Amino acid sequence: MNNRSKSFWLFLAPSLLGMIVVLFIPLLTGAYYSLTDWNGIKVDQFLGLENYLRAFQDERFLNSIWFTTKFSVVAIILVNIIGLGLALLVTQKADKLNNVFRTVFFMPNLIGGIILGFIWQFIFIKAFAAIGDATGIEFFKGWLSTTGTGFWGLIILFVWQMSGYIMIIYISFINNIPDEMIEAAEIDGATAWQTFWKIKFPMLAPAFTVSLFLTLSNAFKIYDQNLALTAGGPFDSTQMVAMNIVNEAFAVRNMGYAQAKAVIFLVIIAVISVVQISITRKREVDL
User: Fold this and answer.
1) For residue 2, is pLDDT > 70?
2) Do the beta carbons of residue 55 and residue 61 sit within 8 Å?
3) Please, what is the angle between helix 205-220 and helix 59-89, to 10°?
4) What DSSP state is assigned to residue 93?
5) Under 8 Å between Cβ of 99 and 108
6) What are phi and psi of 141, to 5 degrees?
7) Does position 287 have pLDDT exceeding 70, yes or no?
8) What is residue 285's predicted lDDT score, i.e. its pLDDT?
9) How far apart are CA 94 and CA 92, in angstroms?
10) Torsion sign over Cα 159, 164, 166, 170
11) Residue ranges of the ABC transmembrane type-1 domain (predicted)?
C-alpha cells in the first residue's frame, strides 16, 4: 500500500467509523431485536418472523402506511411544483429584491417541525374558527377535527416548510443553464413557455432527481409535524408510520414489535427511493 492509499484511508476512517457506529451497528441490532419480544430492557423469547407476520395483519399499521403514502404522493407533487415555480420567479430578472424573496421563501425551513406544527395548529383551529365565525363560512370551521382537514392541514404545513428548501436546489441548476441558449431561443422568437419547456425543463433533470429524493424521504419519515398538528387524531386516522412505530415502542413498550415495523418501513422507503432514482437517472441519460 503506497502513501497515497494510506492517506486516503486515513481521511476516510472517521467517516467510516461514524457510519459503523451510528448506522450499521444500530441497524443490525435492531434487525435482531425485531425477531424477539424485547421490551426495551430484556429479551425473554426469540420469536422469529412472528412480529413481521403480526405487522402485516395490524390494521392500524397498514392504515398508517396507506395514509403516509397518500400524503407523500400529494406532498411531493406540490412541493416540487411550488419549489420550481418559486425558483423561476426569483431568477427571472437581475433584481435586488430577488435575494430578499429567496430568504423569505427559505425561512420556514429553518423553523423546527414541532414549532411549525403548533403554529399551524393555532392557525387552523383558532384563526380559522375566528374567520368562520366572522364570515359564517363553514369551510373555516372544524379544521383538524376530521380526517380530510387533518390530511390537508399536514399537506399545507409540509409544503410551506419544504418548498423554499427545494427552491434553492432548483435555483442552483437554473443558474447553471448557459445564457447563450436562452438568448438564442429569444432571438428565434420562442415564448417564455417554450423557452422553459424546451430548454430549461430538460436541463433540470438532475435537479428533479435530487429534489424528488429529498421530498420523498422527508415526506415518508415525517413525525414531529404530525405529532404537533394532529397527534394522529381523530381516532388515529391521520397517524403516519413514524408515529405508529414510536407509539408502539414507547407508549405500549412493545419494542421488538415496533422494531419489526421499523424494518418493514425501512425496506419500503429503500425500494421506493431506488426505483425513483433509477427512473429519474434514466430520464437524465435520455435527455
Assistant:
1) no
2) yes
3) 140
4) S
5) no
6) -100, 140
7) no
8) 47
9) 7
10) positive
11) 65-276
pLDDT at 284 (0 to 100): 63
Supply the pLDDT for residue 95.
Answer: 66
Least confident of 13-27, 190-204, 252-266: 190-204
Q: Phi and psi at residue 249, in whole multiples of 5°?
A: -80, -45
Cβ count near 244 (within 10 Å): 26
- Burial profile 130-156: b = 16 or more Cβ within 10 angstroms, e = fewer: eebeeeeeeebeebbeebebbbbbbbb
Alpha carbon 287 to its chain centroid, in Å, reads 27
pLDDT band, very low/low/confident/very high, at 4 (cuts 50, 70, 90): low
d(CA 223, CA 193): 38
Distance CA 25, CA 23 (A): 6
DSSP H helical ranges for the chain? 3-19, 25-33, 50-55, 59-89, 97-106, 113-122, 128-135, 147-174, 179-187, 192-195, 201-203, 205-220, 224-229, 241-246, 255-286
**Cα end-to-end distance, the chain, whole Å:** 42
- The grid coordinates of residue 73 equal 404522493
CA geometry: angle 211, 156, 238, nearest 5 deg:
100
Spell out the residues 6+ positions from residue 88 whose beta carbon is closer than 8 angstroms to its own. 170, 174, 196, 200
